[in-house]
Structures are given as C-alpha cells and as structure tokens.
Write a structure and sequence with these properties.
alpha+beta; Alpha-Beta Plaits; four-stranded antiparallel β-sheet; two-stranded antiparallel sheet; 3 helices; 6 strands
Length: 98
C-alpha cells in the first residue's frame, strides 16, 4: 500500500464513552475510516502511522441519522468506524506535544 493511501484510510479517532471504555478494558481504539477502506488496509495504516502491532480489526458501517430542521428533513452522511485491538503492552498516545 502506498503512503498516500495510508494517510487517506484513517480519517481520525472516534471519541465517545463507548470507545473510552473499550480503550481502558480491552486495549481497543476506535477510528473513523474511509468508506472504501478494508480491514487489511486499516491494519497496515495503524501499524505504519503509530508504530504498534495490531491484533485484530473490527469494522462497522454507521448509518446517518435523519434530522428535522427549519427547511424540512435532512439526512446526515453514512460513515464507517473501525475498532482496532492492539497487542498486549502496546498503546497509542493521541496527545500532541510540541
């Protein structure tokens, strides 16, 4: 996989109460990923970007919500989420230090 694709697969971390609990209990991290990303691509991208060993990858498609607004009904975009479990002893630090 080329370097450009590595940067386009992972769109960012997904932060929620459920993902925080998964990080603490099972060493899993949630990422928002490209809609056309595959499990092997996600595994390779995480391993190359964060220099960690990935144990498993689980992927799910999140359906966009239908919302009401002043102009009528609007639908949010569908997106894809990946739960990445790391090998024991590995972790990802998302804090930015300059």
């Amino acid at each position: 996989m080329n370097q450009e694709r590595v940067f386009n697969v992972l769109l960012g971390p997904h932060v929620s109460e459920k993902s925080a609990a998964a990080t603490e209990l099972a060493n899993q991290y949630a990422f928002r990923v490209a809609r056309d990303a595959t499990k092997p691509e996600i595994r390779t991208a995480v391993e190359q970007l964060f220099k960690v060993k990935v144990a498993s990858v689980r992927v799910l498609n999140v359906k966009g919500k239908v919302k009401l607004n002043k102009t009528g009904v609007a639908k949010r975009s569908d997106w894809k989420k990946a739960y990445v479990r790391l090998e024991s002893g590995q972790d990802i630090d998302f804090t930015v230090t300059d």
